[in-house]
């Protein structure tokens, strides 16, 4: 495979992933205005168990299959790749059906016990979980087809199918909510049930796109089989053992955020009721895990996209024993993710109140939780990247252990911190949990690959200094604008506060980064020159 083809595939997958994640954030704005915080909480209760079961059912298959197919294609064993694909497709169809049946049956046992007088009923949550579970029948089939194409260095089918899936899901989700509530005057619970069923409808559309790619390219793929003259026939048991070795670490690391969310779902209401805050428990959880998180996830999308393409690159340097290349790649990716994520996250925190009003509605609780929640994206981003590095150097066990330690810490301290700090305690517990994971994983990266973090730490300090200066400038502009405008008055006034605040923040951060030479080290000379011409007015 040529470097240009690799870079093209990386670019397609990175840009596509970012755009798909961005669509996943945008839809919550009209969704909020249709179902409110009660509907958001119910959606979160029902969708998160599905996310966990989906991770188990697919078992990290896209990346694992991609790695498997790429390896055996490179060895000329195309029949081995095809054999694994056809057998794996059958296996994942079975695991998908079993996952659907299990989730459907156990829904009453995993649904959080809630008091209807404070919000949603347990019966409503069970209904939503069961309607969501249907998607498990077909999504695993999607995952192995995507992995097969990625193993052939073809990223288009994955990106296009995910894009179509997301678009169809969002259209069905919003359309069904609108019809149930506005046309048929049905309940919010029924609307949320149909909106979660959108996962099945979107998955069916995505599968249709993948099947079209498969049949249109089958002739070319069959020609590859004729090139296999090795005569090697690896037993299925050996193939699946190797595939699971790749897959299990991917699935566990990918489950980190859903597991953190499920801990909140199971403990948050009880803890809030115990301190006399039961009336706002559902609302706070809805804002925390649905609306505020969607906004704060925008910077994380970039890190997620990077992590998808980072593993094979890191593996290449590690296998080749190119320590300098490995050191450079790891150092660069940590710096770049922090350089792009930190200003966005801290900027959101500073502008939390007007930002929440602009996207949703005026809410002191919403503004406060977004202010506290926004920095989470820095922790999520660093965790995604550090775990991807460990997987790239084939030290998946430590990525799993690091994730497990963080989840345990979250589970242990969540209730005490909620009782101490209310909803903010949940956010702090999440940040502490991810900090434990990041520190452990980075220690293992240093030990296992002899990677130095000295330059990363120095540059990180410089980035945070610039971010702090930027945050001060943003706060000053916001305070001045607030003398004449009020974000509480209307969405329009909130936007009028946000525009100059964000522009000043961007100019300050770009100016400091460009003048110090940091931007050139992060983004290269071409992009830096363009930024300088725009911000510093240099021709």
UniProtKB/TrEMBL annotation:
<keyword id="KW-1003">Cell membrane</keyword>
<feature type="transmembrane region" description="Helical">
    <location>
        <begin position="47"/>
        <end position="65"/>
    </location>
</feature>
<feature type="transmembrane region" description="Helical">
    <location>
        <begin position="368"/>
        <end position="390"/>
    </location>
</feature>
<feature type="transmembrane region" description="Helical">
    <location>
        <begin position="12"/>
        <end position="35"/>
    </location>
</feature>
<feature type="transmembrane region" description="Helical">
    <location>
        <begin position="298"/>
        <end position="320"/>
    </location>
</feature>
<keyword id="KW-1133">Transmembrane helix</keyword>
<feature type="transmembrane region" description="Helical">
    <location>
        <begin position="197"/>
        <end position="215"/>
    </location>
</feature>
<dbReference type="Pfam" id="PF01943">
    <property type="entry name" value="Polysacc_synt"/>
</dbReference>
<feature type="transmembrane region" description="Helical">
    <location>
        <begin position="463"/>
        <end position="487"/>
    </location>
</feature>
<dbReference type="InterPro" id="IPR024923">
    <property type="entry name" value="PG_synth_SpoVB"/>
</dbReference>
<feature type="transmembrane region" description="Helical">
    <location>
        <begin position="332"/>
        <end position="356"/>
    </location>
</feature>
<feature type="transmembrane region" description="Helical">
    <location>
        <begin position="85"/>
        <end position="107"/>
    </location>
</feature>
<feature type="transmembrane region" description="Helical">
    <location>
        <begin position="399"/>
        <end position="418"/>
    </location>
</feature>
<feature type="transmembrane region" description="Helical">
    <location>
        <begin position="493"/>
        <end position="512"/>
    </location>
</feature>
<protein>
    <submittedName>
        <fullName>Polysaccharide biosynthesis protein</fullName>
    </submittedName>
</protein>
<dbReference type="InterPro" id="IPR002797">
    <property type="entry name" value="Polysacc_synth"/>
</dbReference>
<feature type="transmembrane region" description="Helical">
    <location>
        <begin position="170"/>
        <end position="191"/>
    </location>
</feature>
<dbReference type="GO" id="GO:0005886">
    <property type="term" value="C:plasma membrane"/>
</dbReference>
<feature type="transmembrane region" description="Helical">
    <location>
        <begin position="424"/>
        <end position="443"/>
    </location>
</feature>
<feature type="transmembrane region" description="Helical">
    <location>
        <begin position="243"/>
        <end position="263"/>
    </location>
</feature>
<keyword id="KW-0812">Transmembrane</keyword>
<keyword id="KW-0472">Membrane</keyword>
<feature type="transmembrane region" description="Helical">
    <location>
        <begin position="127"/>
        <end position="149"/>
    </location>
</feature>
<dbReference type="InterPro" id="IPR050833">
    <property type="entry name" value="Poly_Biosynth_Transport"/>
</dbReference>
């Amino acid at each position: 495979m040529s470097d240009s083809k690799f870079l093209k595939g990386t670019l397609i997958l990175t840009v596509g992933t970012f755009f798909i994640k961005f669509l996943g954030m945008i839809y919550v704005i009209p969704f909020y205005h249709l179902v409110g915080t009660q509907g958001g909480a119910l959606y979160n209760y029902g969708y998160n168990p599905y996310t966990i079961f989906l991770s188990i059912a697919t078992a990290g298959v896209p990346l694992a299959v991609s790695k498997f197919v790429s390896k055996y294609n490179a060895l000329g064993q195309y029949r081995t790749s095809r054999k694994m694909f056809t057998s794996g497709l059958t296996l994942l169809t079975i695991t998908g059906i079993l996952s659907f049946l299990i989730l459907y049956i156990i829904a009453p046992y995993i649904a959080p016990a809630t008091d209807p007088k404070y919000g949603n009923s347990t019966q409503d949550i069970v209904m939503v979980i069961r309607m969501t579970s249907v998607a498990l029948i077909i999504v695993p089939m999607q995952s192995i087809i995507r992995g097969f194409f990625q193993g052939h260095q073809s990223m288009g089918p994955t990106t296009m199918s995910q894009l179509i899936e997301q678009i169809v899901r969002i259209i069905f989700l919003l359309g069904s909510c609108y019809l149930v509530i506005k046309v048929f005057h049905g309940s919010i619970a029924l609307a949320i049930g149909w909106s979660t069923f959108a996962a099945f409808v979107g998955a069916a559309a995505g599968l249709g796109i993948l099947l079209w790619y498969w049949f249109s390219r089958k002739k070319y793929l069959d020609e590859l089989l004729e090139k296999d003259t090795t005569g090697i026939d690896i037993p299925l048991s050996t193939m699946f053992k190797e595939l699971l070795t790749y897959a299990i670490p991917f699935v566990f690391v990918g489950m980190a955020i859903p597991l953190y969310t499920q801990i909140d779902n199971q403990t948050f209401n009880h803890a809030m009721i115990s301190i006399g805050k039961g009336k706002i428990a559902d609302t706070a959880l809805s804002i925390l895990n649905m609306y505020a998180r969607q906004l704060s996830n925008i910077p994380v999308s970039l890190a997620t996209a990077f992590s998808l393409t980072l593993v094979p690159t890191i593996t290449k340097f590690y296998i080749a024993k190119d320590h300098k290349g490995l050191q450079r790649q790891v150092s660069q990716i940590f710096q770049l993710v922090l350089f792009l994520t930190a200003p966005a996250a801290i900027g959101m925190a500073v502008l939390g109140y007007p930002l929440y009003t602009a996207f949703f509605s005026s809410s002191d609780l919403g503004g406060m939780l977004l202010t506290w929640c926004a920095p989470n994206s820095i922790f999520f981003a660093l965790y995604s990247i550090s775990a991807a590095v460990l997987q790239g150097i084939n030290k998946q066990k430590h990525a799993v252990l690091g994730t497990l330690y963080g989840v345990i810490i979250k589970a242990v301290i969540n209730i005490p911190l909620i009782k101490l700090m209310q909803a903010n305690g949940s956010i702090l517990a999440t940040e502490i949990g991810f900090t434990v994971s990041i520190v452990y994983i980075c220690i293992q990266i240093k030990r296992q690959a002899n990677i130095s973090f000295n330059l990363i730490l120095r540059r990180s300090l410089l980035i945070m200094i610039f971010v702090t200066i930027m945050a001060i400038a943003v706060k000053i502009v916001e305070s001045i604008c607030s003398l004449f405008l009020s974000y509480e008055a209307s969405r329009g006034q909130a936007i009028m506060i946000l525009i100059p605040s964000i522009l000043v923040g961007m100019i300050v951060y770009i100016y400091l980064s460009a003048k110090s030479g940091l931007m050139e080290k992060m983004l290269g000379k071409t992009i830096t020159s363009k930024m300088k011409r725009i911000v510093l007015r240099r021709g």
